[in-house]
Amino acid sequence: MRWQKEFFTDPEILDEEFSGPEVDTDGDGRMNLIEYTEGTNPRVPNLAGGLAAQVMEDIVGRFFQLSHARNAKAFDVLHTMEASENLATWEDIEDELFDISSSQAGDVIQMNRGHRPVAGKRFYRMKYEFDR
Ligand SMILES: [Ca+2]
User: Fold this and answer.
1) Cβ contacts of residue 5 below 8 Å, gap of 6+?
2) What is the Å distance from ligand 1's center to 31 Cα?
């Protein structure tokens, strides 16, 4: 695949167990698909990337904001924001997203204010998959 050519030799690309999208070549806990999508090097261990959460405030009140790094060249990857209250079942929360702004650095996602009360903890994740 095109994205692999940037970091792997032709023989390495043929070895799916070394360079495949679901493999963690550098052993940093992040699959190659995530490294590609977030614009990090799959051969250099790092903990960059992931989702960053913030509570923001403006004249209307507080709102929740998530941001993540995004490789501008990874236009062939679909992003789906999901949430869970138990880490076992996850749901697509597109209807809770208020605004998404993108830049070279990544996306900033603002959530609807008071969409629904959430008791206890809530976890968020970004699901990445190739747009086939
Ligand atoms: Ca990795």
Assistant:
1) 13
2) 5
